[in-house]
Amino acid sequence: MINSIIIEDEQSSMEYLVSILKRNHKNVKVLGWASDVESAVTLIKKKEPEIVFLDIQLKDGSGFEVLDKLQNEMTFEVIFTTGFVDYKEKAMDYFAFYYLNKPIQETQLQKVLNMYELKRSAFDKRKYEAFKHQVESKYDAITIFERGEYTSVKFSNILYCEASGNYTTIHLKHNKQLLISKNLKRIEDMVEHSDFFRVHRSYLINLKHVNKFTADGVIVMSNNAEIAISSRSRKKVIDFLKFYNSKKY
After folding, report:
1. pLDDT per residue of the chain (249 residues) written in tens, 0 to 9
2. How many whole angstroms from its chain centre is CA 203?
3. Which CATH topology does 2-134 take?
4. Where in the chain are all domains bearing CATH 2.40.50.1020?
5. Which CATH class is domain 140-248?
6. Rounded to whole angstroms, how far apart are CA atoms 154 and 98?
7. Which end of the chain has a smaller Cβ tally under 10 Å, C or N?
8. In the chain, which residues fall in CATH 3.40.50.2300?
9. Strand order in the sheet with 77-82
10. Nearest of 13, 91, 113, 110 to residue 55 by alpha carbon
11. 226, containing H or E segment
C-alpha cells in the first residue's frame, strides 16, 4: 500500500483525484487533505506519506512554501498538480519531476504512478531548489544540471546556443562554453525570452549580442562568431531582426 496526502485548495479537484485513485489505484491510500500551507506542513509531518500530490497554487500561498518549511524532512515523493499549461510545465519536464496537468486525466495519472512505482524514490531536494530558482528567475536565467551540479546562467551572459546532435553548446561571454546533454529544442523551450530567436535549426541566438547581419546572410555575433543563415530562412530572419531592433528604440 502506498500512503499519500493531497494538498489542494479546491475541494472539487481533491474529490475528483480521490475518485480516480479509488477507481483505478486501490494500492494508493489517501491519508488526508489540506488546502493551506500550515495545515499541509502539519499533515505531512503527522502522516509521513510516501507521496504528496501538491498543488502549486494554494489558498494562502504556494506549494513551494510547503516544501520550504519542511526543509530536510522531505522523505516523500512529490507529484505536482497544476493548472499552468505553460512555463511551469516546461520547467518540470526539464527537471524530470512528476506532474499532472489539471483537469487530471486518468491515463496521465496512471503513467505518473507507474513511473513512481518503478523508481520508488524520495524527493530530490537539490533538484527542487534548482527547479524553484528556474521558475522564479524565468526572465533572468536558466538553471542547468550537468555532471551532478546545478549551474544558473544569466540570459544576458549567453551569446548563442549551438546544436550538436542530442547535445547543445552554450556560448557565453569571455569565450566560455557549456556543453549540455539536452537538445536545442529543449533549451529553446526553457529560454522563453523575447531576446532569443531560433535563426537556424542549429542555432538559437541572443539578439542583444548581434553585431551585424551581412547582405549575404551571415549574422556576426559580439564575439565575432559568424552564423550563416540559409537562403530559405534569410528573409524571415532579416524581417525579425528589423522588428526586434525597431522595438528597442
Report:
1. 999 999 999 999 999 999 999 999 999 999 999 999 999 999 999 999 999 999 988 888 888 899 889 877 788 989 988 876 665 666 676 676 788 888 899 999 999 999 888 887 777 887 788 788 777 776 688 887 777 677 888 889 999 999 988 899 999 999 999 998 888 988 887 787 778 888 888 999 999 999 988 878 899 999 999 998 877 777 777 777 777 776 553
2. 21
3. Rossmann fold (3.40.50)
4. 140-248
5. mainly beta
6. 26
7. C
8. 2-134
9. 28-34, 2-7, 51-55, 77-82, 98-101
10. 13
11. strand 226-228
Contact 81, 98 (CB under 8 A): no
| Residue count of the chain | 249
Of 152, 14, 125, 13, nearest in space to 67 by CA: 125
CB 17 within 8 Å of CB 32: no
Question: What angle in degrees, to the nearest 10, is found between the helix axes of 125-136 and 87-94?
Answer: 150
* Global pTM value: 0.66
